[in-house]
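FORM 7B: Structural annotation worksheet

SECTION A. Query
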Amino acid sequence: DPAWRYGTMDPKHIRVLLDYEPSGSFVVVDTPTGGMCVLYVSLGRVHAVPVDASALGFRVRGAVSFFETIDELVQFYSNNTGDGFSCTLRTPPGERPMRRAQRPSALDQDISSLLPSGPVVWWKDNALAVRDAMRAILTQPDGSFFIRYIGSPINFVLIYIHGGVLHSEFIHHKQSGPAAAQGVYLSKGSQRIFASLQDLVTLHRAQRDELLCALQLPKDAVAQVENVDRAVSNARDWLP
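SECTION B. Predicted structure
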């Protein structure tokens, strides 16, 4: 499925996902009645456009034109407005402005300087990874989370679950001032500056601080980390 197809998911969770997204960010969810709904951002607000499905195809409710597939409908409104769309549909959440092969250097270097040198399970760096993380997090215990890149200049969004409800927190990237004052910080609360996202995550896994609960890795992520640690330990046993 395309990265913008989220299947059956409560729109209230999608609205949290779309917090802080730029205009044109969108996803498509299935509705209980057999139709679909396009949720998109325009000027900082999330809008919902229902799509009906019938033997004639897919059609925005109240519109004239039918489309054979939902993909064709999305493609049309990626180039046209109207019928409930105040801006064109652009990219699903988590999609980078340009792919790494197209624009190397500054953006990736700035982001990588804030991340650990090895892979981390909480970092979602593309739209498919964000979608899969959203599907998984709703079944995870309180504190399960992921972080994604958003917008330019470089900033990030933390999404975590507490009491069955998703919450989003904006993470600023401060690049001005002396080196000791540069880093990342949550937009609310003490606005304590961390040298990296890893440092921010480490503290908020130990204490909740400004959050509703302390962060923790999802269960499957914990298993992955334990498997990696075990594999490394076993490998060391074979070293001379």
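SECTION C. Observations
The radius of gyration is 20 Å. Residues 98-105, 222-240 have pLDDT under 50 and may be disordered.

SECTION D. Sign-off
Analyst initials: ____
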